[in-house]
């Protein structure tokens, strides 16, 4: 895994398994994605059985949205 990440210029940090407290940024992002999914399904009057497709769509949209952390590039390109 180390070699793969170095080769592809991926920066990663490991955490202890089963301790979501150590991965606050990811946990926060997932919580926000689920809030957006619930709101999107509610506003479209779509059944909750489509939450998986909606979740994938929301993640895709976020990867194509500019952030303040990355200058002049979207996360998908980074």
Q: How large is the radius of gyration?
A: 16 Å
Structural category:
mainly alpha
What's the pLDDT, averaged over the residues?
82
Based on Cα principal axes, name the global outline.
extended
Number of helices: 3
Q: How many domain units?
A: 1
Instruction: Tell me the span between the first and last alpha carbons.
Output: 19 Å
Q: In short, what is this structure?
A:
Helix content is 50%, strand content 0%. With 78 residues, it is mostly helical.
Record keyword descriptors for this entry.
3 helices; 78 residues; mainly alpha; single chain; extended
How does this structure look, described?
There is one protein chain. With 78 residues, the chain is an all-alpha fold. The protein has one domain. Helix content is 50%, strand content 0%. The chain is built from three helices and no strands. α2 crosses α3 (51-63). It is extended, with a radius of gyration of 16 Å. The protein starts with a helix and ends in a 15-residue tail after the last helix. The mean pLDDT is 82.
Per-chain topology:
Elements: H1 2-7, H2 24-43, H3 51-63
């Amino acid at each position: 895994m180390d070699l793969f990440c170095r080769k592809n210029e991926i920066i990663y940090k490991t955490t202890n398994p089963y301790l979501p407290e150590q991965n606050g940024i990811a946990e926060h992002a997932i919580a926000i994605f689920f809030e957006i999914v619930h709101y999107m399904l509610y506003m479209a009057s779509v059944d909750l059985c489509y939450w998986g497709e909606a979740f994938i769509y929301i993640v895709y949209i976020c990867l194509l949205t500019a952030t303040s952390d990355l200058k002049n590039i979207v996360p998908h390109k980074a």
